[in-house]
Each structure stands twice: as C-alpha cells, then as structure tokens.
Write a structure and sequence with these properties.
With 338 residues, the protein is an alpha/beta fold. It folds into 2 domains: 2-120, Rossmann fold; 122-332, Dihydrodipicolinate Reductase, domain 2, CATH 3.30.360.10. Helix content is 31%, strand content 23%. The strands form 2 sheets. An 8-stranded mixed beta sheet has the order 12-11-10-6-9-8-7-13. Strands 2-1-3-4-5 form a 5-stranded parallel beta sheet, sandwiched between helices. β8 (217-224) and β9 (229-235) form a beta hairpin. α8 (186-196) crosses α10. The two termini are 32 Å apart.
Length: 338
C-alpha cells in the first residue's frame, strides 16, 4: 500500500512515519506539508519526493492512502478532499472540532467507500482490555463512578523551554481548537466513553494556568444515562503524573495506575484485593487495523462511534466552560450511538 504523508505539524507525525516504514505492507512515496520548508526537510530525511501541491498528491493514481497530521482545523478540508479522490485516510485525534464537521467527513468517506482510521491508541492496550473484560464479566456490578486522568508537564517552563517542551503551535487555538483537553484529554475521554456508556450531560472547567492562549489544565464531570458519574482529568502541568483509571461499582472496584492493576470484587478471592496474574494481550495498533481493513476487509476495533463521541464530549465541555453551566448533549443536538 503506497501512502503519502500530509504534514509534519503534529508531534506524532514522526511516530507514524516510523511505524509506516516498519510495516512491510506500507510504503511512503511522498510528502506534502502546508509549510513547504518543513515538508521539504522531512521528505529529504525520509528520502522521498516532496510535492508542494496537495491536489497533485491526491490525484496521483499510485497513492492508495494518506496519513494526515496537519493542523486540526485543516482536517475536514484535507480529509474530505482525500476521500473524494478515493484515498484511504489515517489521522490523529481529534477528527474535527464539532460532531457536525465529523459527520460531514464521514459522509464523504462512506460515499467514496474508503477507510478512515483515527488513532485512539489506548483502546488497543492491555489495561483497557482488562477493564472492559471486568465489566463484561460483571465483576464490578453496576458502575456508579469512573475517574480517568492522563497528564504530563508539557507546558511547565524551564530554562531550556520557557513555554515548556510542547511545540509552540500547540498553543495556537485556531489551529488546535483548544489545549490540554482536546489534545491529551482525548485519551481519558474515549476511554470513559467506552467504559461508561452513553453520556447525558457534562460540566467542564478549562483553566489557563500559564495564560498561553489555550487551556493547560482541565476537568470534566460527566453524567451518564445509566445514572453513573465520572471525572475526566488532564493537563500539561503535572510532573510524574501516572495514567490513572478507576472504576467503582456496586460489587467491586478496579484501580489502574500506570502499570499497576488491582481489583477487589465480591466475586473474587472473598472480596480481597487481587493483582491479575496476566492482562490480555494488546491488539493491533490503529495503523495496522487500518491496513487490515483496506487489504483484508477486517473490521477495526476503533469505530466511527468512538470518534464521534470523543468530539461530542470535547464540544460539550468547551460549551460548558464558556457558558459556565452544565450542558446536556441534547441541547447541542448531539445523539450518541454507543
């Protein structure tokens, strides 16, 4: 499968190029970038041609798919154009700033019968698969509360990096759509969406601790249709903060902190804490799932609903923060499919 890389804007662009190069079934053929200088340098590093004209890339019959890591505000136009040229698309979260824009993208994808994959990497990892397994087996009973935190210190200033180690363009709200919540907060959002089910309402608080132009610290309180509650936490201000996922239910509790997993359930070991001997094996990465969908017709585990629901929570949380009130998803005309 021949692919073109569209932009090195995102911090994970190099990671995707590396993964594509390491996949025997994927071959990088060219680079385009909205910044020609950056794109030309990247193409030189990868030893492939640089094409400054996006239309020339998308109309090239030798290109089967594109890996899109442009500014987020370009996603809709670039991805729809790629779909209309019959190219398969791999991209980084979030897909777009609103559910309506996401649905526009999916209409183009479905009309042109191409495969779109948005990378939501933690949905392929062992700790999530174990959490889902405990729910499926009923080990926690009815879920009443979920907490998930993913944070780092990317905006904490240092002598070497006065605005932190994140690229400065991550603070350009027009390009990114926001800060910590829409970027790093995507991980706890899509995890809790999967584990908590359909969301009824959110209350979001997005702070600007360092006044960089976007939120660098955020919390979102979630109310689920089931009656359960949840808390999503993220930020660019925390040194040494481990990923934390906590599930509380009527018959058990699951605690995950970094690599440490423990469960207490009335159905296990007389209700004492247990550390699982073995977690489920991780499943194929999003890029490999994308390839398998294209070449083998295999259904990916990361779904359209995951992508739409991620944007739905972001959109509602941003509205809540702006208006200073609780937001029902129905008030935004958002209907979740879970």
């Amino acid at each position: 499968m021949n692919v073109a890389l569209l932009s090195k804007w995102h911090v994970h662009a190099n990671d995707y190029a590396r993964e594509a190069n390491e996949n025997e079934s994927i071959s990088i053929k060219m680079v385009w970038d909205e910044d020609p200088k950056r794109g030309a340098e990247w193409a030189h590093e990868l030893q492939v041609p640089f094409e400054p004209n996006l239309e020339q890339v998308l109309s090239n019959p030798e290109i089967d798919g594109v890996i899109v890591t442009t500014t987020t505000n370009r996603h809709k136009d670039v991805i729809i154009a790629a779909a209309n040229h019959g190219k398969h698309i791999f991209t980084e979260k979030v897909l777009a700033f609103t559910v309506e824009e996401c649905e526009e993208i999916y209409r183009a994808v479905e009309e042109n019968q191409v495969h779109l994959m948005v990378n939501l990497p933690r949905l392929t990892e062992s700790f999530y698969l174990y959490a889902q397994e405990t729910l499926d087996k009923g080990l926690l009973g009815d879920i009443t509360y979920i907490r998930c935190r993913v944070a780092h210190n990317g905006s904490v200033p240092s002598a070497e990096h006065p605005k932190g180690w994140l690229p400065e363009h991550f603070y350009h709200k027009e390009e990114c759509g926001g800060g910590a919540l829409i970027d790093l907060g995507a991980h706890p959002i899509y995890l809790t969406n999967r584990l908590g089910g359909k969301v009824k309402a959110v209350t979001g608080k997005l702070n600007e601790f360092y006044q960089l132009g976007v939120d660098d610290n955020a919390v979102v309180m979630v109310e689920y249709e089931s009656g359960a509650m949840g808390m999503i936490e993220t930020g660019f201000l925390s040194f040494g903060s481990p990923q934390q996922l906590e599930l509380y239910g009527t018959e058990g509790t699951l605690m995950i902190e970094g690599e440490n997993v423990r469960i207490k359930s009335k159905h296990l070991n007389a209700g004492e804490w247990i550390t699982p001997e073995k977690l489920p094996e991780p499943i194929h990465s999003a890029m490999e799932q994308w390839r398998e969908a294209i070449q083998k017709g295999k259904k990916p585990s990361i779904t359209k609903e995951d992508v739409l629901n991620l944007t739905a929570i972001n959109q509602a949380a941003a509205a809540s923060n702006k208006e200073g009130r609780r937001i029902l998803l129905s008030q935004l005309g958002i209907e979740q499919n879970v």
